[in-house]
């Protein structure tokens, strides 16, 4: 699989056959998927989807997992009604499509979701997680919104020029050792910059033998050797949120 024909690795992995336990709601100008835990809580986590959009069953599975761990989980349509990418789309046009979906320009959507969580869900303790495209969005949001007390960025693509040292609150970075689209030297450089300049808690972790999307795009039952790392990544994500929210 050449990088030229697949400029984003998000097509690697499985599409879960999953219905979801939550419901779709209207949040100002966008739609969102919301799942609430059995017991009332004032803790909430925003879930930022990858290029396949807010309706991907995999992402809703992760939102439901957060709800099962005691959080109100909301996955908004961060594309704001613009077309999500489909695996059947022409990958030669991916770069042009991506220019219309800037992960760092979702403040209007973030503002709407934060207002909804506070006014309609009684949320007071807030966090955010995101996958791939959403992982980039998490980095932006954690440098922009001080009310987000914890963030988890999962395999968000990085560039040598990226400087995310101005994080406002603790952020956890999950990467895969065998992610062809995020070279380990870039991860190392990212960690060096954080160690030098970051004023809040952070952690950068690389999971051995794993490929892009392993936490939310890999089924545990496909490769037994991957199952411990998939489960560990999900557990580490929850533990980080539990620690800081």
UniProtKB/TrEMBL annotation:
Residues 30-244 form the Dienelactone hydrolase domain. It comes from the Eukaryota. GO terms for molecular function: hydrolase activity. InterPro entries: AB_hydrolase_fold, CMBL, Dienelactn_hydro. It is found in: Cytoplasm, Cytosol. Its main location: cytoplasm. Keywords: Cytoplasm. Belongs to the dienelactone hydrolase family. PANTHER family: CARBOXYMETHYLENEBUTENOLIDASE HOMOLOG. This is Carboxymethylenebutenolidase homolog. It comes from Scopus umbretta (Hammerkop). The gene is Cmbl_2.
């Amino acid at each position: 699989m050449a990088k030229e024909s697949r400029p984003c690795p998000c097509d690697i992995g499985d599409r879960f056959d999953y219905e979801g336990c939550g419901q779709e709601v209207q949040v100002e100008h966008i739609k969102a998927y919301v799942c609430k835990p059995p017991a009332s809580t004032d803790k909430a986590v925003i879930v930022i989807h990858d290029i396949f959009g807010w309706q991907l069953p995999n992402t809703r599975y992760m939102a439901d997992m957060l709800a099962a761990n005691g959080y109100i989980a909301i996955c908004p349509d961060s594309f704001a009604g613009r077309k999500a990418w489909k695996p059947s789309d022409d990958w030669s046009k991916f770069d042009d499509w991506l220019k219309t979906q800037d992960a760092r320009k979702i403040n209007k959507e973030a503002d709407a979701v934060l207002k909804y969580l506070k006014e309609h869900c009684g949320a007071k303790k807030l966090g955010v997680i995101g996958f791939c495209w959403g992982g980039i969005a998490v980095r932006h949001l954690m440098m922009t919104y001080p009310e987000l007390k914890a963030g988890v960025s999962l395999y968000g693509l990085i560039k040598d020029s990226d400087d995310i040292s101005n994080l406002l609150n603790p952020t956890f970075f999950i990467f895969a050792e065998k992610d062809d689209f995020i070279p380990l030297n870039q991860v190392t450089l990212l960690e060096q910059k954080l160690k030098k300049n970051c004023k809040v808690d952070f952690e950068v972790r690389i999971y051995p033998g794993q490929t892009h999307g392993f936490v939310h795009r890999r089924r545990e039952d496909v490769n037994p050797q991957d199952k411990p790392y998939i489960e560990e990544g999900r557990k580490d994500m929850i533990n980080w949120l539990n620690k800081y929210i």
